[in-house]
């Protein structure tokens, strides 16, 4: 199990796994840890090796963090454990990220690429788009902002979230001049729930991807 990083972010334990194992290697790990039944349920109906690997790796990563029980889901799709702990799961090509916490948490990982920049107007408001266009590292910034809004979306556990209207950078001027190559945090506000809360977003880069962890500020 190639654990890339394992750390605590505002009460949430986050595990980042660089996924190099085959389905067969992952299944051998599943059997050795007694997770056969819940992993069979997790991959039922999935035929693509990539998806099967991601599902198996997610369950193994949660086991590593002390979660060996089945996961339930809220109406909006947020994972939840019977003991009241919160879970968040994300994966992209070659990476799996999971978070477990006693408080709500959202985690997302995205591979750096040009896709987010090309579709920026679908998820960024006018101020955020203008800021993006004024930076030289547009590819990285767009990927980070997409990942951050995905993490906040998972955190707030609401359906029908409009990323442009409901999720916005709060400390905008401070964000503009950020060095995107080092770990940092910034504040967003969600306007979808009754709470309309401030959210702290922690950002960390790997060699080719960005990981974001969202927790309520304060």
Primary descriptors:
8 helices; Ribosomal Protein L22, Chain A; 11 strands; 4-stranded antiparallel sheet; 2 domains; alpha+beta; 5-stranded antiparallel sheet; 218 residues; single chain
Structural summary, described in words:
The protein is α+β, with helices and mostly antiparallel strands. It has two domains: 3-102, 4'-phosphopantetheinyl transferase domain (Ribosomal Protein L22, Chain A); 108-216, 4'-phosphopantetheinyl transferase domain (Ribosomal Protein L22, Chain A). It is 34% helix and 29% strand. It is built from eight helices and eleven strands. Strands 7-11-10-9-8 form a five-stranded antiparallel β-sheet. A four-stranded antiparallel β-sheet has the order 1-2-6-5, with helices on one face. The protein has a two-stranded antiparallel ribbon with strand order 3-4.
